[in-house]
Amino acid sequence: MSSKLVPSDPEKVMVIRRVSKNITTLSVPFFRFGHLKVGGRGTIVRLNSGALAVFSPVALTPEVKKTISALGEVKYITALDIEHHIFLGQWHQEFPDAKVMGPEGLAEKRAKSKDVENVPFSVVFSSKGDNAVDADFDSEFQYEFVSAHPNKEIVFNHIPDRTLIEADLMFNLPATEQFSKSGVSATSGWLTRFFGSLNNTRGSAIWQKRFIWYALSAKDRKGFNASVSRIDKFDFDRIIPCHGDVIESDGKGIFRKVMEWHLKASQKSSRL
């Protein structure tokens, strides 16, 4: 595992923050392709039952273990897409009774790699299945499997906290919080600044709109539009992305701004 991708000592640079009564984030530096400062983030949600659901797990450091022991018992561990799975083995080993969940194609991808551990998936989100988890989980979460996304994205909405949790559906760069303890500026380097200009939510967010429309959704825009339309029906105010800062409020408005073209296309299609 390249040190350019994952911090050599994540304990020192991880920001553990309680963003709401039920949600804790684990934010770390992360360099995409070894150069782009996009940051990484795991999210822990405490359900009404006391069970914990972990999304896009990051390094399981001693401080993370201490945080978990104070919150409850890990019952669900989810890779939000086929790229956010590096630490699944570590978490499964520590919490073997937890249900491991992920998108279709991820198990096969991991089976081909010699660098990751074998992990049994209890729930595989599929474009052909009903994607139910269990009564405890389903009573608190809405979710959409965006099979049209190149990374096979699963988006979750925690209903009690009105919080959307996603990985690569949209970014909110720069990754200020994620690099805040690293001693490195989240905006340094021309590649990072260029990528950040394409993947932020400021102003009209025109470049991220273009990036998603012309790049991410190009192969199946109709399917992408349909997923975005279903997500838009969720009731959320906060957005927790894996890359970039948490959108603490007006998340629905920002989502609609970034996904404007997809929502309009979906509405037009439904009228035909």
Automatic annotation (TrEMBL):
It comes from the Eukaryota. Signal peptide: none annotated. InterPro entries: DUF4336 (IPR025638), RibonucZ/Hydroxyglut_hydro (IPR036866). This is Metallo-beta-lactamase domain-containing protein. It comes from Cryomyces minteri.
